[in-house]
């Protein structure tokens, strides 16, 4: 029997584990990839928007030469946190079912990586900290499932001398475009918005605008991709359909949390916002004993919760669990 099982070993899940350890608990973290899997999937040379101190967890300093860390520095930092804090993490194990039994205990069923079978656990409390980066927002258009379509960008070198279409107009689309251009790709950006997103990093936008102005990048506003073909992309702008030559597509259309997983646990979801129903004072959902931590609490608005504020969710969660257990011990 586990006291607490945390689903997801991102920064917010790891931080919640540390808060609980500080209260005398020894939580088990179950992660379907490896620790901070979402950060691992960032572009190789990605630099964070946040300064390193805003990414710290467990009062462990994140010291680097530059103010804003890069992906590899963050990976190293969180690995060190797990080692120093002695956090129990079961990596490459996916939670496939959480069921509350009549006695209030949760039965957790997992699937091991590489078809190595299943495992089951029992726990008194569950914390869901699964993030949202695993589930891209699909466009629902023909050809979206072609092998040349990517929803994540890692590195630009393979796309040298290729005709690349980037769909989207926010930070991930801009970063992808600039990296592909530097690697010698011919890039067209297709964005349904009428102007640049206000969320674009301010130190990047001037350079990107210069590339567009000088014809190095083809930027198409107020347009929507309607079909992806083997050798081309079809889009519509001002009611007119156009088709351009294409080798590779990066559909940087955002991501969303796995709401089906939450609903299977009995957690209610607000239809308009996609938010799980929870108490913001305790982070407990409508299912007693199940808490949420990190960006999953924001529903469809991933710009509301980041590492820098989601890392504190473990504090009210741990305090709620401590108080509840103390009250139960007095009965």
Detail the topology: elements first, then pairings.
Blueprint: E1 2-7, H1 11-22, E2 28-30, H2 37-40, H3 71-85, E3 88-90, E4 93-100, E5 106-112, E6 118-128, E7 149-150, E8 163-167, H4 171-182, E9 186-190, H5 205-213, E10 218-220, E11 223-228, E12 232-237, E13 240-245, E14 248-251, H6 259-264, E15 278-279, E16 284-285, E17 290-292, H7 307-310, H8 314-329
Parallel strand pairs: 1-2, 1-6, 2-3, 6-17, 7-14, 8-9, 8-14, 9-10
Antiparallel strand pairs: 4-5, 5-6, 11-12, 12-13, 15-16
Keywords: Flavoprotein, Oxidoreductase
Cofactor: FAD
Protein name: YpdA family putative bacillithiol disulfide reductase
Coarse structural class? alpha/beta
Mean pLDDT: 95
Largest sheet: 7 strands, mixed
Low-confidence stretches: none
Task: Give me the CATH architecture of the largest domain, please.
Answer: 3-Layer(bba) Sandwich
Q: How many domains, in number, for the residues?
A: 2
End-to-end gap:
21 Å
Quickly count the helices. Answer: 8
Radius of gyration computed on alpha carbons:
22 Å
CATH superfamily of the largest domain: FAD/NAD(P)-binding domain
Helix content: 10-25%
CATH class of the largest domain: Alpha Beta
Stated plainly, the CATH topology of the largest domain is called: FAD/NAD(P)-binding domain
Shape assignment: elongated
* Percent of residues in beta strands: 15-25%
How many β-strand runs? Answer: 17
